[in-house]
Amino acid sequence: MRRRRAAVAAGFCASFLLGSVLNVLFAPGSEPPRPGQSPGPSPAPGPGRRGGRGELARQIRARYEEVQRYSRGGPGPGAGRPERRRLMDLAPGGPGLQRPRPPRARPLPDGAPSWPPAPGPGSPGSGPRLGCAALRNVSGAQYVGSGYTKAVYRVRLPGGAAVALKAVDFSGHDLGSCVREFGARRGCYRLAAHKLLKEMVLLERLRHPNVLQLYGYCYQDSEDIPDTLTTITELGAPVEMIQLLQTSWEDRFRICLSLGRLLHHLAHSPLGSVTLLDFRPRQFVLVDGELKVTDLDDARVEETPCASSADCILEFPARNFSLPCSAQGWCEGMNEKRNLYNAYRFFFTYLLPHSAPPSLRPLLDSIVNATGELSWGVDETLARLERVLHLFRSGQYLQNISAGSRAEYQRLPDSTIPQEDYRCWPSYHHGSCLLSVFNLAEAVDVCESHAQCQAFVVTNQTTWTGRQLVFFKTGWSHVVPDPNKTTYVRASG
Ligand SMILES: *[C@@H]1O[C@H](CO)[C@@H](O)[C@H](O)[C@H]1NC(C)=O
Ligand SMILES: *[C@@H]1O[C@H](CO)[C@@H](O)[C@H](O)[C@H]1NC(C)=O
Ligand SMILES: *[C@@H]1O[C@H](CO)[C@@H](O)[C@H](O)[C@H]1NC(C)=O
Ligand SMILES: *[C@@H]1O[C@H](CO)[C@@H](O)[C@H](O)[C@H]1NC(C)=O
Ligand SMILES: *[C@@H]1O[C@H](CO)[C@@H](O)[C@H](O)[C@H]1NC(C)=O
Ligand SMILES: *[C@@H]1O[C@H](CO)[C@@H](O)[C@H](O)[C@H]1NC(C)=O
Question: In this structure, which of 137, 141, 288, 362 has its CB flanked by the most CB atoms within 10 Å?
Answer without folding.
Answer: 141
